[in-house]
Amino acid sequence: MTKNRESDGTANVSPTDAHERRAAKPVICYATSSLPPFDVNFYHTARVSATRTVLLEIPPREARCFVVPEGCFFRISCQHGSQVGDLNLWQRDDLSEHFFSGKTRQLHATHLTTGDRLWSNMPYLRPIATITDDSLSWYGWDDDGAGIHDVIGTRCDPYTHNRLHGENYHHCCHSNLTRALADKRGISQKDAETHIHDVLNVFMCTGFTKDSHQYFMKASPARKGDYIEFFAETDLLGALSACPGGDCSSTHSSDDAQCYPLTVEVFTPEKQSLDTWQPFQRSEYIAK
């Protein structure tokens, strides 16, 4: 008869080969060498020919929607002060296809920068945007293990805030994004909320503590003029919230932090610079 380890009190005792088990070599889950490479020359040439066609400012503790036609660039920047933003992206004509932070994290990293792509959810699973420039790419990883532009957090939301603090706060990024999408699409907030998804935390500096491995945030290194820029690989509808946490150096989901507007610009390249560009197609997988 097999002995029950829980009943004899040995369930949490380290085995004699514990060191060997922990020493197993890590294996990258997804080798991405078969994916189309980041074509620096193409994106650079297209961007040089582009002119600004949209300028939008996102007020502090609010969100706004914006449209980016495929083949155009869009830039998010801090023009007024250090400020974190929460970004949602959808295929412009089909809200069921949207940014998928989890798969993006698996294919690239916990924090994104130039050359990384933002992937859409299943069953579509394709790059819908490519990061083409990032003024904070110098930051890398700091001594706390933190990086910039994370896809490990979700977005501050009123439900978690209420659970933790027993109060209602209406300008969490989740709420801001919901209202912005409802206004843009002319739908109810209840319907809009079903389309709000996990975000790219633009300019946010985050990581996991080395002892307890808890998610943490620290002051964003972004300063006036810092930016991150993307290329729209399909027609996009974006929503960006200027987080109520400001630079996230102390708090979020409150009116305590100093917050600044965020700026969104769309740049349209000359048509001939896109002659060699082919949009990514949706996944060809066919379920049985």
Automatic annotation (TrEMBL):
InterPro entries: DUF1989 (IPR018959). Residues 57-237 form the DUF1989 domain. It comes from the Bacteria. It holds the Pfam family DUF1989. PANTHER family: RE64534P. This is DUF1989 domain-containing protein. It comes from Enterovibrio gelatinilyticus. The lineage of its organism: Bacteria, Pseudomonadati, Pseudomonadota, Gammaproteobacteria, Vibrionales.
